[in-house]
Amino acid sequence: MFGEKSWLIKTLGLFFLLILPILLVLYFNSSILSIGLILLEGAAVGLIFGSIIALIFSVINPPQWLFTYRYILEGILWGLMIATTSLFVTTSEESLSMSKAVFTTLFCSGMGVLWIYYFKYKKLQQQMEEYLSGNLDTVDLCDVANFSDQEYDNKNSLLLLSASHIQIVSIDTHKKLADLQLSEINPKIRRRTWFNFPAGIQLSNTKEVKVKFPLYWFKKISMQKR
Prior knowledge:
Transmembrane segments: 7-28, 34-59, 71-89, 101-119
Helix content: 55-70%
Order of helices and strands: HHHHHEEEEEEEH
Keywords: Membrane, Transmembrane, Transmembrane helix
Oligomer: single chain
Structural class: alpha+beta
Largest sheet: 7 strands, antiparallel
Low-confidence stretches: 1-8
Strand order of the largest sheet: 4-3-2-1-7-6-5
Strand content: 15-25%
C-alpha cells in the first residue's frame, strides 16, 4: 500500500530507532552495558509514557490548531520519552552537560516527530485519499479509531465526519462498516471503568468508537447535528 518510497522511510525510521541507544551511548562515552539498560528501561518507560500520552489525549479538548498538529505533538511526546530515558541512564554514570542534554532532547524529539508523522499521519492521509478517491473536501474530520458493534470488536478503522453523516471504514479492506445519519444518532461519551476517564464515543446502543481526543470529536459531532 505504501510503495517503495514509504517502505524506505519505514526502514530508515526503524534503523534509527534501533541504533539510537547505541548512538547516545557512544556520544556520552558510557559503557556498552548502558545499551542494554536503555533498551530495558526504555521498554518499561514506554509502557508508562504510552499510558500517560493516551490519558492526556483522552481528557483534553484541544483547540483546532492543536488537533490539526496532533501527530506532531504525539511525536514530540514520544521523543521526550526516549530522551528522558537516555538521559536518566547516562547521568547515572557521569555528569551531564547542558549541551549534551539539549542535543539528546532535540535529536530524540526530531526522530519522534519524523517517526509519527510518516507512519501515522502520512498513512492516514493516503488511506483517506484511496477511500475518497481524492475528494477530501467532502470530509470535515477524520482519524483512525477502533470500532465495535455486534459484529466487530475494536476493528481498526477510519472515522469520517461530514456535514450530514458519520462513516466508519475498515482500514484493511476499505469496506464501509457503518454509515450513520447525524440526525439519527445521540452520541455520548464512553468512559473507562477506572477513574471515569473518557475512552471513546458511543454512537448508538450497539456502535461505539475509541478515538484519540474523544471530547473534541464529541464536540464536533454535536455541532454538526445542529
